[in-house]
Amino acid sequence: MSASDAPVGADLAAALAAAIELLRSERLPEAEAALDALLACWPQQPDALHYLGVLRHAQGRADDAVTLVRQSLAVAPGNVGAWNNLGNILLLAQRFDEAAEAYEASVDAAQGTPEASRALDNLAVLYRRQGQAAAAERVARRAIELNPDDGDAWYRLSQSLLDQGQVREGLLANSRAVALWPRHQQARSDVLRALVLLGERQRAAALYREWLDEEPDNPVVQHLLAASSGESTPERASDAYVEQVFDSFAASFDAKLESLNYRAPSLVAQALREAVGEPAGDLQIADLGCGTGLCGPLLRPFAARLAGCDLSVGMLRQAQARRAYDQLHKAELGHYLRTQPDDFDVLVSADTLIYFGDLHAVMHDAHTALRAGGWLIFTVEALAENDPAPLQLQPHGRYAHRRSHVEQALAAAGLAPDAITAETLRTEGGKPVGGWLVRARKLQHA
User: Which helix (H) or strand (E) holds 254?
Assistant: First the structure.
Protein backbone atom coordinates (compact mmCIF):
# COMPACT_ATOMS: atom_id res chain seq x y z
CA MET A 1 0.00 0.00 0.00
CA SER A 2 1.40 3.43 -0.91
CA ALA A 3 1.54 6.36 1.50
CA SER A 4 -1.26 8.04 -0.43
CA ASP A 5 -3.50 5.04 0.17
CA ALA A 6 -3.13 5.01 3.97
CA PRO A 7 -5.46 7.91 4.78
CA VAL A 8 -8.19 6.31 2.67
CA GLY A 9 -7.92 3.09 4.66
CA ALA A 10 -7.92 5.01 7.90
CA ASP A 11 -10.94 7.03 6.80
CA LEU A 12 -12.79 3.85 5.87
CA ALA A 13 -12.07 2.18 9.20
CA ALA A 14 -13.15 5.24 11.18
CA ALA A 15 -16.32 5.76 9.14
CA LEU A 16 -17.25 2.08 9.41
CA ALA A 17 -16.66 2.04 13.18
CA ALA A 18 -18.86 5.13 13.58
CA ALA A 19 -21.65 3.61 11.48
CA ILE A 20 -21.55 0.34 13.44
CA GLU A 21 -21.75 2.22 16.73
CA LEU A 22 -24.82 4.10 15.49
CA LEU A 23 -26.41 0.80 14.50
CA ARG A 24 -25.65 -0.79 17.89
CA SER A 25 -27.15 2.26 19.58
CA GLU A 26 -30.34 1.70 17.51
CA ARG A 27 -30.00 5.14 15.89
CA LEU A 28 -31.17 3.63 12.63
CA PRO A 29 -31.73 6.73 10.44
CA GLU A 30 -28.24 8.04 11.28
CA ALA A 31 -26.69 4.60 10.79
CA GLU A 32 -28.43 4.25 7.43
CA ALA A 33 -27.13 7.63 6.25
CA ALA A 34 -23.61 6.74 7.39
CA LEU A 35 -23.61 3.37 5.63
CA ASP A 36 -25.07 4.87 2.44
CA ALA A 37 -22.30 7.47 2.49
CA LEU A 38 -19.72 4.72 2.95
CA LEU A 39 -21.00 2.77 -0.01
CA ALA A 40 -21.06 5.92 -2.14
CA CYS A 41 -17.31 6.26 -1.51
CA TRP A 42 -16.43 2.58 -1.42
CA PRO A 43 -18.96 0.65 -3.57
CA GLN A 44 -19.18 -3.06 -2.75
CA GLN A 45 -17.30 -2.57 0.54
CA PRO A 46 -18.21 -5.88 2.22
CA ASP A 47 -18.51 -4.68 5.82
CA ALA A 48 -20.72 -1.76 4.82
CA LEU A 49 -22.95 -4.09 2.82
CA HIS A 50 -23.08 -6.54 5.72
CA TYR A 51 -24.11 -3.96 8.31
CA LEU A 52 -26.56 -2.27 5.95
CA GLY A 53 -28.16 -5.71 5.66
CA VAL A 54 -28.33 -5.96 9.43
CA LEU A 55 -29.96 -2.52 9.49
CA ARG A 56 -32.52 -3.53 6.85
CA HIS A 57 -33.40 -6.51 9.01
CA ALA A 58 -33.95 -4.19 11.99
CA GLN A 59 -36.30 -2.18 9.76
CA GLY A 60 -38.33 -5.31 9.01
CA ARG A 61 -37.09 -5.59 5.40
CA ALA A 62 -35.93 -9.20 5.50
CA ASP A 63 -35.60 -9.76 1.74
CA ASP A 64 -33.44 -6.64 1.31
CA ALA A 65 -31.37 -7.73 4.31
CA VAL A 66 -30.68 -11.15 2.80
CA THR A 67 -29.72 -9.62 -0.55
CA LEU A 68 -27.25 -7.17 1.02
CA VAL A 69 -25.55 -9.73 3.27
CA ARG A 70 -25.23 -12.14 0.35
CA GLN A 71 -23.62 -9.34 -1.71
CA SER A 72 -21.17 -8.80 1.15
CA LEU A 73 -20.32 -12.50 1.26
CA ALA A 74 -19.77 -12.61 -2.49
CA VAL A 75 -16.93 -10.14 -1.91
CA ALA A 76 -15.68 -11.57 1.42
CA PRO A 77 -16.79 -15.23 1.64
CA GLY A 78 -14.67 -15.91 4.73
CA ASN A 79 -16.58 -13.51 7.01
CA VAL A 80 -17.67 -15.75 9.89
CA GLY A 81 -19.93 -13.11 11.47
CA ALA A 82 -21.68 -12.22 8.21
CA TRP A 83 -22.58 -15.86 7.57
CA ASN A 84 -23.89 -16.13 11.13
CA ASN A 85 -25.98 -12.95 10.81
CA LEU A 86 -27.35 -14.18 7.48
CA GLY A 87 -28.46 -17.34 9.27
CA ASN A 88 -30.16 -15.27 11.99
CA ILE A 89 -32.07 -13.22 9.42
CA LEU A 90 -33.17 -16.33 7.53
CA LEU A 91 -34.15 -18.07 10.77
CA LEU A 92 -36.45 -15.23 11.82
CA ALA A 93 -37.92 -15.25 8.30
CA GLN A 94 -38.62 -19.01 8.84
CA ARG A 95 -36.43 -19.92 5.84
CA PHE A 96 -35.01 -22.75 7.87
CA ASP A 97 -33.08 -24.73 5.25
CA GLU A 98 -31.28 -21.61 4.03
CA ALA A 99 -30.57 -20.58 7.62
CA ALA A 100 -28.98 -23.96 8.34
CA GLU A 101 -26.77 -23.62 5.25
CA ALA A 102 -25.65 -20.15 6.36
CA TYR A 103 -24.79 -21.33 9.86
CA GLU A 104 -22.79 -24.27 8.48
CA ALA A 105 -20.96 -21.86 6.16
CA SER A 106 -20.07 -19.76 9.22
CA VAL A 107 -18.69 -22.87 10.93
CA ASP A 108 -16.64 -23.75 7.85
CA ALA A 109 -15.29 -20.21 7.61
CA ALA A 110 -14.19 -20.36 11.26
CA GLN A 111 -11.92 -23.31 10.37
CA GLY A 112 -12.17 -25.15 13.67
CA THR A 113 -11.65 -22.13 15.92
CA PRO A 114 -13.87 -21.30 18.93
CA GLU A 115 -15.48 -18.58 16.80
CA ALA A 116 -17.58 -21.35 15.20
CA SER A 117 -19.44 -22.01 18.45
CA ARG A 118 -21.77 -19.02 17.98
CA ALA A 119 -23.10 -20.33 14.66
CA LEU A 120 -23.41 -23.83 16.10
CA ASP A 121 -25.39 -22.43 19.03
CA ASN A 122 -27.76 -20.72 16.60
CA LEU A 123 -28.02 -23.91 14.57
CA ALA A 124 -29.09 -25.71 17.75
CA VAL A 125 -31.81 -23.08 18.22
CA LEU A 126 -33.01 -23.70 14.67
CA TYR A 127 -33.18 -27.47 15.12
CA ARG A 128 -35.14 -27.07 18.39
CA ARG A 129 -37.65 -24.83 16.62
CA GLN A 130 -38.15 -27.61 14.12
CA GLY A 131 -38.62 -30.16 16.88
CA GLN A 132 -35.31 -31.91 16.05
CA ALA A 133 -33.94 -32.28 19.56
CA ALA A 134 -31.37 -34.94 18.66
CA ALA A 135 -29.91 -32.74 15.91
CA ALA A 136 -29.82 -29.79 18.34
CA GLU A 137 -27.93 -31.95 20.82
CA ARG A 138 -25.42 -32.98 18.16
CA VAL A 139 -24.50 -29.43 17.12
CA ALA A 140 -24.43 -28.19 20.74
CA ARG A 141 -21.86 -30.89 21.50
CA ARG A 142 -19.83 -29.74 18.47
CA ALA A 143 -19.85 -26.21 19.88
CA ILE A 144 -18.67 -27.45 23.28
CA GLU A 145 -15.82 -29.39 21.67
CA LEU A 146 -14.62 -26.18 20.03
CA ASN A 147 -15.21 -23.96 23.06
CA PRO A 148 -15.74 -25.81 26.36
CA ASP A 149 -16.33 -22.51 28.19
CA ASP A 150 -19.25 -21.45 25.97
CA GLY A 151 -22.18 -21.08 28.37
CA ASP A 152 -24.61 -20.73 25.45
CA ALA A 153 -23.57 -24.11 24.07
CA TRP A 154 -24.05 -25.81 27.44
CA TYR A 155 -27.45 -24.14 27.73
CA ARG A 156 -28.57 -25.35 24.28
CA LEU A 157 -27.30 -28.82 25.11
CA SER A 158 -29.36 -28.83 28.30
CA GLN A 159 -32.47 -27.72 26.42
CA SER A 160 -32.09 -30.42 23.79
CA LEU A 161 -31.55 -33.08 26.46
CA LEU A 162 -34.61 -31.94 28.40
CA ASP A 163 -36.62 -32.01 25.16
CA GLN A 164 -35.69 -35.68 24.82
CA GLY A 165 -36.68 -36.47 28.38
CA GLN A 166 -33.08 -36.81 29.58
CA VAL A 167 -33.81 -34.71 32.64
CA ARG A 168 -30.84 -35.56 34.84
CA GLU A 169 -28.34 -35.09 32.00
CA GLY A 170 -30.08 -31.85 31.04
CA LEU A 171 -29.89 -30.65 34.64
CA LEU A 172 -26.13 -31.26 34.74
CA ALA A 173 -25.58 -29.44 31.45
CA ASN A 174 -27.77 -26.58 32.61
CA SER A 175 -25.86 -26.33 35.87
CA ARG A 176 -22.65 -26.03 33.84
CA ALA A 177 -24.23 -23.23 31.82
CA VAL A 178 -25.19 -21.39 35.00
CA ALA A 179 -21.65 -21.75 36.35
CA LEU A 180 -20.24 -20.29 33.14
CA TRP A 181 -22.85 -17.55 32.78
CA PRO A 182 -24.40 -16.93 36.21
CA ARG A 183 -26.44 -13.89 35.18
CA HIS A 184 -28.28 -15.81 32.46
CA GLN A 185 -31.70 -15.98 34.12
CA GLN A 186 -33.27 -18.25 31.55
CA ALA A 187 -30.65 -20.94 32.15
CA ARG A 188 -31.18 -20.60 35.88
CA SER A 189 -34.94 -20.99 35.54
CA ASP A 190 -34.49 -24.06 33.35
CA VAL A 191 -32.45 -25.68 36.12
CA LEU A 192 -35.28 -24.98 38.53
CA ARG A 193 -37.86 -26.39 36.11
CA ALA A 194 -35.72 -29.49 35.76
CA LEU A 195 -35.80 -29.93 39.53
CA VAL A 196 -39.58 -29.69 39.42
CA LEU A 197 -39.69 -32.32 36.68
CA LEU A 198 -37.58 -34.54 38.91
CA GLY A 199 -40.17 -34.09 41.64
CA GLU A 200 -37.73 -32.10 43.78
CA ARG A 201 -40.17 -29.24 44.35
CA GLN A 202 -38.90 -28.29 47.78
CA ARG A 203 -35.34 -28.04 46.50
CA ALA A 204 -36.61 -25.87 43.65
CA ALA A 205 -38.54 -23.72 46.13
CA ALA A 206 -35.38 -23.23 48.20
CA LEU A 207 -33.49 -22.04 45.13
CA TYR A 208 -36.35 -19.72 44.16
CA ARG A 209 -36.16 -18.23 47.67
CA GLU A 210 -32.44 -17.63 47.20
CA TRP A 211 -33.13 -15.98 43.87
CA LEU A 212 -35.87 -13.86 45.42
CA ASP A 213 -33.42 -12.68 48.09
CA GLU A 214 -31.29 -11.32 45.23
CA GLU A 215 -34.24 -9.87 43.28
CA PRO A 216 -37.11 -9.35 45.72
CA ASP A 217 -39.27 -7.51 43.17
CA ASN A 218 -38.92 -10.08 40.36
CA PRO A 219 -42.54 -11.06 39.53
CA VAL A 220 -41.52 -14.21 37.65
CA VAL A 221 -39.59 -15.60 40.60
CA GLN A 222 -42.41 -14.63 42.98
CA HIS A 223 -44.96 -16.54 40.90
CA LEU A 224 -42.82 -19.63 40.33
CA LEU A 225 -41.89 -19.81 44.01
CA ALA A 226 -45.59 -19.97 44.82
CA ALA A 227 -46.07 -22.60 42.11
CA SER A 228 -43.25 -24.84 43.31
CA SER A 229 -43.82 -24.45 47.05
CA GLY A 230 -47.63 -24.45 47.08
CA GLU A 231 -47.51 -21.56 49.53
CA SER A 232 -49.33 -18.22 49.20
CA THR A 233 -50.93 -19.20 45.90
CA PRO A 234 -52.10 -16.04 44.09
CA GLU A 235 -55.63 -15.75 42.72
CA ARG A 236 -54.12 -15.36 39.28
CA ALA A 237 -50.76 -14.64 37.67
CA SER A 238 -49.89 -11.00 38.25
CA ASP A 239 -49.92 -8.47 35.43
CA ALA A 240 -46.18 -7.95 35.93
CA TYR A 241 -45.53 -11.70 35.59
CA VAL A 242 -47.54 -11.96 32.38
CA GLU A 243 -45.92 -8.89 30.84
CA GLN A 244 -42.37 -9.94 31.68
CA VAL A 245 -42.73 -13.55 30.59
CA PHE A 246 -44.50 -12.90 27.31
CA ASP A 247 -42.53 -9.82 26.32
CA SER A 248 -39.37 -11.88 26.77
CA PHE A 249 -40.22 -14.46 24.12
CA ALA A 250 -42.75 -12.72 21.88
CA ALA A 251 -40.48 -13.06 18.84
CA SER A 252 -40.07 -16.83 19.27
CA PHE A 253 -43.55 -17.58 20.62
CA ASP A 254 -45.11 -18.93 17.42
CA ALA A 255 -42.16 -21.17 16.60
CA LYS A 256 -42.15 -22.52 20.15
CA LEU A 257 -45.85 -23.36 20.06
CA GLU A 258 -45.53 -24.93 16.62
CA SER A 259 -42.92 -27.31 18.03
CA LEU A 260 -45.41 -28.24 20.79
CA ASN A 261 -48.21 -29.10 18.33
CA TYR A 262 -50.31 -26.30 19.78
CA ARG A 263 -54.03 -26.83 19.01
CA ALA A 264 -55.98 -24.30 21.11
CA PRO A 265 -56.58 -21.71 18.32
CA SER A 266 -57.92 -24.29 15.89
CA LEU A 267 -60.06 -25.84 18.64
CA VAL A 268 -61.75 -22.56 19.56
CA ALA A 269 -62.28 -21.68 15.89
CA GLN A 270 -63.95 -25.04 15.25
CA ALA A 271 -66.11 -24.60 18.35
CA LEU A 272 -67.22 -21.20 17.04
CA ARG A 273 -68.12 -22.71 13.68
CA GLU A 274 -70.20 -25.38 15.43
CA ALA A 275 -71.95 -22.67 17.44
CA VAL A 276 -72.84 -20.17 14.70
CA GLY A 277 -72.45 -22.07 11.44
CA GLU A 278 -70.45 -21.00 8.43
CA PRO A 279 -68.80 -17.56 8.72
CA ALA A 280 -70.84 -14.60 7.51
CA GLY A 281 -68.61 -11.75 8.64
CA ASP A 282 -71.35 -10.24 10.82
CA LEU A 283 -70.23 -10.80 14.43
CA GLN A 284 -68.62 -8.55 17.02
CA ILE A 285 -65.76 -10.71 18.38
CA ALA A 286 -63.10 -10.18 21.05
CA ASP A 287 -59.98 -12.36 21.32
CA LEU A 288 -59.03 -12.28 25.02
CA GLY A 289 -55.33 -12.65 25.63
CA CYS A 290 -54.75 -12.61 21.89
CA GLY A 291 -50.97 -13.03 22.18
CA THR A 292 -49.29 -12.98 18.78
CA GLY A 293 -52.67 -13.26 17.09
CA LEU A 294 -52.70 -16.94 16.20
CA CYS A 295 -56.50 -16.95 16.49
CA GLY A 296 -56.91 -13.81 14.38
CA PRO A 297 -56.87 -15.28 10.86
CA LEU A 298 -59.18 -18.10 12.00
CA LEU A 299 -61.72 -15.69 13.53
CA ARG A 300 -61.56 -12.98 10.85
CA PRO A 301 -64.09 -14.58 8.44
CA PHE A 302 -66.71 -14.58 11.21
CA ALA A 303 -66.19 -10.98 12.27
CA ALA A 304 -67.62 -7.64 11.30
CA ARG A 305 -65.27 -6.34 14.01
CA LEU A 306 -62.44 -8.30 15.59
CA ALA A 307 -60.81 -6.84 18.71
CA GLY A 308 -57.92 -8.25 20.70
CA CYS A 309 -56.50 -7.52 24.11
CA ASP A 310 -53.28 -8.59 25.80
CA LEU A 311 -50.94 -7.34 28.52
CA SER A 312 -47.75 -7.90 26.52
CA VAL A 313 -46.68 -5.11 24.17
CA GLY A 314 -44.31 -7.55 22.46
CA MET A 315 -47.17 -9.93 21.73
CA LEU A 316 -49.43 -7.13 20.49
CA ARG A 317 -46.76 -6.02 18.02
CA GLN A 318 -46.69 -9.54 16.58
CA ALA A 319 -50.49 -9.61 16.43
CA GLN A 320 -50.57 -6.25 14.64
CA ALA A 321 -48.34 -7.65 11.91
CA ARG A 322 -50.97 -10.31 11.09
CA ARG A 323 -53.40 -7.56 9.99
CA ALA A 324 -56.39 -9.60 11.18
CA TYR A 325 -57.61 -7.32 13.97
CA ASP A 326 -59.59 -4.10 13.75
CA GLN A 327 -58.51 -3.05 17.25
CA LEU A 328 -55.79 -4.17 19.64
CA HIS A 329 -55.74 -3.07 23.27
CA LYS A 330 -53.05 -3.37 25.92
CA ALA A 331 -55.25 -4.28 28.84
CA GLU A 332 -55.76 -6.81 31.58
CA LEU A 333 -58.45 -9.22 30.45
CA GLY A 334 -60.95 -8.66 33.29
CA HIS A 335 -60.63 -4.88 33.14
CA TYR A 336 -61.12 -4.96 29.39
CA LEU A 337 -64.32 -6.98 29.71
CA ARG A 338 -65.74 -4.75 32.42
CA THR A 339 -65.30 -1.67 30.24
CA GLN A 340 -67.12 -3.22 27.24
CA PRO A 341 -70.67 -3.90 28.52
CA ASP A 342 -73.01 -5.74 26.12
CA ASP A 343 -70.53 -5.12 23.30
CA PHE A 344 -69.72 -8.55 21.85
CA ASP A 345 -71.51 -11.45 20.20
CA VAL A 346 -68.52 -13.76 20.78
CA LEU A 347 -65.65 -13.89 23.26
CA VAL A 348 -62.83 -16.37 22.66
CA SER A 349 -59.81 -17.14 24.80
CA ALA A 350 -57.24 -19.72 23.76
CA ASP A 351 -55.07 -20.79 26.70
CA THR A 352 -55.25 -17.46 28.53
CA LEU A 353 -57.43 -18.49 31.47
CA ILE A 354 -54.69 -20.96 32.42
CA TYR A 355 -53.18 -17.93 34.18
CA PHE A 356 -56.31 -17.47 36.32
CA GLY A 357 -57.11 -19.46 39.44
CA ASP A 358 -60.74 -19.23 40.55
CA LEU A 359 -62.76 -18.54 37.38
CA HIS A 360 -65.85 -17.01 38.99
CA ALA A 361 -64.79 -13.37 38.63
CA VAL A 362 -63.62 -13.64 35.02
CA MET A 363 -66.81 -15.50 34.04
CA HIS A 364 -68.83 -12.66 35.55
CA ASP A 365 -66.75 -10.16 33.55
CA ALA A 366 -67.40 -12.15 30.39
CA HIS A 367 -71.14 -12.05 31.09
CA THR A 368 -70.88 -8.26 31.36
CA ALA A 369 -69.25 -7.89 27.94
CA LEU A 370 -71.49 -10.35 26.08
CA ARG A 371 -74.77 -9.47 24.44
CA ALA A 372 -77.78 -11.62 25.26
CA GLY A 373 -77.39 -14.96 23.51
CA GLY A 374 -73.67 -14.33 22.92
CA TRP A 375 -71.05 -17.07 22.98
CA LEU A 376 -68.02 -17.58 25.24
CA ILE A 377 -65.46 -20.10 23.96
CA PHE A 378 -62.23 -20.87 25.79
CA THR A 379 -59.68 -23.49 26.79
CA VAL A 380 -58.16 -24.28 30.19
CA GLU A 381 -55.88 -27.06 31.35
CA ALA A 382 -57.68 -29.99 32.97
CA LEU A 383 -57.34 -31.11 36.57
CA ALA A 384 -58.54 -34.61 37.33
CA GLU A 385 -61.97 -34.77 38.93
CA ASN A 386 -60.64 -36.98 41.72
CA ASP A 387 -58.26 -34.19 42.77
CA PRO A 388 -59.44 -32.80 46.11
CA ALA A 389 -58.99 -29.17 45.01
CA PRO A 390 -61.19 -27.41 42.42
CA LEU A 391 -58.09 -25.86 40.83
CA GLN A 392 -54.34 -25.99 41.22
CA LEU A 393 -51.36 -23.77 40.45
CA GLN A 394 -49.01 -26.21 38.78
CA PRO A 395 -45.21 -26.18 39.23
CA HIS A 396 -44.67 -24.67 35.76
CA GLY A 397 -46.77 -21.62 36.72
CA ARG A 398 -50.08 -22.35 34.96
CA TYR A 399 -53.38 -23.22 36.64
CA ALA A 400 -55.38 -26.37 35.99
CA HIS A 401 -59.11 -26.63 36.70
CA ARG A 402 -61.56 -29.40 37.43
CA ARG A 403 -64.50 -29.60 35.08
CA SER A 404 -66.88 -29.12 38.00
CA HIS A 405 -65.20 -25.80 38.86
CA VAL A 406 -65.64 -24.59 35.28
CA GLU A 407 -69.31 -25.57 35.36
CA GLN A 408 -69.91 -23.86 38.70
CA ALA A 409 -68.22 -20.62 37.59
CA LEU A 410 -70.27 -20.52 34.39
CA ALA A 411 -73.54 -21.16 36.21
CA ALA A 412 -72.83 -18.52 38.87
CA ALA A 413 -72.22 -15.94 36.13
CA GLY A 414 -75.40 -16.71 34.19
CA LEU A 415 -73.61 -18.52 31.38
CA ALA A 416 -75.10 -21.79 30.17
CA PRO A 417 -72.56 -24.46 29.10
CA ASP A 418 -73.32 -25.76 25.62
CA ALA A 419 -70.37 -28.16 25.43
CA ILE A 420 -67.34 -28.99 27.59
CA THR A 421 -65.06 -31.51 25.93
CA ALA A 422 -61.72 -33.05 26.89
CA GLU A 423 -59.01 -32.17 24.38
CA THR A 424 -55.24 -32.32 24.00
CA LEU A 425 -54.11 -28.70 23.86
CA ARG A 426 -50.43 -29.31 23.04
CA THR A 427 -47.50 -31.50 24.02
CA GLU A 428 -44.93 -30.70 26.69
CA GLY A 429 -41.84 -32.74 27.45
CA GLY A 430 -43.11 -35.18 24.84
CA LYS A 431 -46.36 -35.74 26.74
CA PRO A 432 -49.88 -34.53 25.85
CA VAL A 433 -51.33 -31.67 27.89
CA GLY A 434 -55.01 -32.30 28.51
CA GLY A 435 -57.55 -29.51 28.76
CA TRP A 436 -61.18 -28.49 28.55
CA LEU A 437 -62.63 -26.87 25.44
CA VAL A 438 -65.60 -24.91 26.71
CA ARG A 439 -68.48 -23.39 24.76
CA ALA A 440 -71.09 -21.47 26.76
CA ARG A 441 -73.84 -18.95 26.04
CA LYS A 442 -75.14 -15.92 27.85
CA LEU A 443 -78.72 -16.52 28.86
CA GLN A 444 -81.31 -14.34 27.15
CA HIS A 445 -82.61 -13.25 30.54
CA ALA A 446 -80.89 -13.00 33.91
Answer: helix 253-259
CA angle 221, 222, 223 (to 5 degrees): 90
pTM of the model: 0.62
Query: Are the C-beta atoms of residues 323 and 372 closer than 8 Å to each other?
Result: no
The C-alpha angle with vertex 114 and arms to 109 and 120, in degrees rounded to 5, equals 70
Residue 392: how many other CB atoms lie within 10 Å: 20
Helix (H, G, I), strand (E, B) or coil at 365: helix
Residues 143 and 269 in one domain: no
Cα torsion 22, 24, 26, 29: sign: positive
Cα–Cα distance between 408 and 426 in angstroms, integer?
26
More confident residue, 233 or 412: 412
The CATH number of residue 335's host domain is: 3.40.50.150
**Phi/psi at 429 (5° precision):** 60, 30
| Separation CA 314–CA 414 (nearest Å) | 34
Q: Is 179 exposed, middle or buried (0-12, 13-18, 19+ CB in 10 A)?
A: exposed
Q: What 3 state SS string does 403-414 have?
A: HHHHHHHHHHHC
Q: How far apart are CA 12 and CA 223, in angstroms?
A: 52
The count of structural domains within the chain is: 2
- Contacts of residue 243, defined as CB under 8 A and 6 or more positions apart, other chains included, come to 311, 312, 313
Distance, CA of 341 to CA of 423 (rounded, Å)? 31
Is-contact 326 307, C-beta < 8 A? Answer: yes
Q: Are residues 270 and 181 in the same domain?
A: no
Residue 195 lies in a domain: no
Taking only Cα atoms into account, the Rg of the chain, rounded to an integer number of angstroms, comes to 25
Q: Does residue 356 sit within a domain? A: yes
Q: How many CA atoms lie within 13 A of 389 on its CB side?
A: 13
131-179 per-position pLDDT tens digit: 899 999 999 999 999 999 888 899 899 999 988 888 778 878 887 887 7
Query: Hey, is 126 helix, strand or coil?
Result: helix
Instruction: Output b/e per residue, 148-170; b: 16+ Cβ within 10 A.
Output: eebbbbbbbbbbbbbbbebbebb
